[in-house]
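Field log, afternoon session.

UNIT: design team B
ACTIVITY: writing a sequence onto a fixed backbone
BACKBONE:
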């Protein structure tokens, strides 16, 4: 079921999302104590809203140490901008570079590198995954073999946050050609049910070939990157739905902050979350009704039915979200509300 095109001259989904969020942010009333207690969360929210206003979409790689995340981004860029190390992962914090591609509805695309998820303790890994899910508009989960426990855990967290993602099997050149099909099938068997419709893209970001020298020694010679499936899938996705991805991530950021604020107030004896939303007379004017259905086709491989339900946070109910995003992948519907 394709999305019906908006009437000529009507604002796009991304523009309606931005208008809604601008109004919500302008009407958000916080005490000094709330600003101090939720300072990092408020900063993350405002950063996401600025990215939406500036039409800057962020694509982040995520995965274990040494799976070739940095070399994959270098291959997409066509230059060595992200540091790589053959023996050990050398990314210790998020790094980002602009990706020089023209995408309708966007002013820019950033590629974001992240530390390996197995470099840090399990609790810290969960916090990092949550921050990534909030900040990135699209995630590339990079593997270099069969799915491991840390990768499965990270994937579950991203799915629970309703994060659009692509699965990338890097270093396919390290596996014999006759084993490729068996490896891909094994990965799919280990995926959570909700992730099985996701495209699984096999690439080689920094392939090498053994070369026999005249003196009998063997040396490793670099070959050009083989990332055409990933590049094609990314460009198709961004050209088709880039601005929409940006808008949805802004709505998720507002929802996450609204839940955190509501819980913080309830924990301090507030029986009502007054003033959190304000009046929403502009909802219908912007074309964002109570439950519009947006169908997102991720690179032809995953249909995401994203139902956007905006509801007033009213007294008492700790489970009353500002914006509820539900993600349907295949036949399984998952809540897109991230844990706090």
């Amino acid at each position: 079921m394709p999305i019906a095109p908006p009437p000529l001259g009507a604002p796009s989904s991304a523009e309606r999302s931005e208008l809604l969020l601008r109004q919500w942010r302008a009407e958000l009333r916080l005490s000094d104590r709330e600003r101090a207690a939720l300072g990092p969360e408020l900063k993350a929210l405002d950063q996401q809203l600025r990215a939406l206003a500036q039409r800057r979409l962020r694509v982040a790689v995520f995965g274990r140490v040494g799976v070739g995340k940095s070399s994959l981004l270098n291959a997409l860029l066509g230059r060595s901008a992200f540091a790589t190390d053959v023996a050990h992962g050398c990314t210790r914090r998020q790094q980002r570079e602009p990706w020089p591609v023209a995408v309708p509805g966007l002013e820019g695309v950033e590629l974001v590198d992240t530390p390996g998820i197995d470099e840090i303790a399990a609790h810290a890994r969960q916090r990092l995954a949550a921050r990534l899910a909030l900040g990135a508009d699209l995630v590339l989960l990079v593997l270099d073999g069969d799915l491991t426990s840390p990768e499965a855990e990270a994937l579950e967290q991203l799915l629970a946050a309703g994060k659009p993602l692509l699965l990338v099997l890097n270093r396919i050149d390290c596996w014999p050609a006759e084993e490729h099909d068996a490896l891909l099938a094994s990965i799919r068997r280990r995926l959570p049910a909700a992730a099985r419709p996701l495209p699984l893209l096999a690439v080689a970001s920094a392939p090498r070939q053994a070369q026999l020298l005249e003196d009998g020694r063997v040396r490793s010679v670099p070959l050009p990157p083989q990332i055409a499936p990933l590049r094609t899938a990314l460009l198709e996705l961004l050209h088709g739905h880039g601005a929409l991805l940006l808008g949805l991530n802004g709505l998720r950021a507002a929802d996450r902050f609204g839940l955190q604020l509501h819980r913080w107030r309830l924990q301090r004896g507030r029986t009502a979350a007054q003033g959190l939303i304000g009046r929403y007379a502009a909802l219908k004017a912007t074309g964002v009704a109570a439950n519009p259905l947006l169908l997102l086709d991720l690179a032809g491989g995953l249909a995401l039915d994203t139902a956007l339900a905006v509801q007033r946070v009213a007294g008492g109910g700790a489970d009353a979200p500002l914006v509820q995003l539900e993600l349907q992948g295949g036949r399984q519907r998952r809540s897109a509300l991230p844990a706090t």
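LOG NOTE: The first strand starts at residue 56 and ends at 63.
NEXT ACTIVITY: expression trials, pending approval
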